[in-house]
Amino acid sequence: MDRLAGRDSDTPALPLEIVELELALQHQDFLQTGFEGAVLLALERIGGRMLFRMRMNGMAGCDWIAAVALEGGGEETVALVAQPAEGGPLRVEDAATSDLPVARIAKAYAEIMGRLDTPPAQASDAQEDPESET
Length: 134
Fold this sequence. Notes:
single chain; 134 residues; alpha+beta; 35% helix; globular
């Protein structure tokens, strides 16, 4: 086990954006701002956006989960921020490798939002103008 990172050496390295989010969350006063406030302040600091938050009521050992999108290196990384039901610091996981039940929902939601943010192709590029042939 890598004692500095607290992870097994067999575990793949986390994307840099997730590490940045973990560090930004450590500097938030979770008790004062609440879960959503702490996540939003951390995202503002590193440049990301919240996709959604969900009350878990202890399911999968979490009280709250937020799905977030992080930009970096031209690619979007979807991560989950979890508030453990037993207390303690907020946990950040890569949605691509997470076992949390909302991980697949988060990835699908990010994909849908990405498609909605993309402007549609211009009609003139997609179809021929039927009047121009006359």
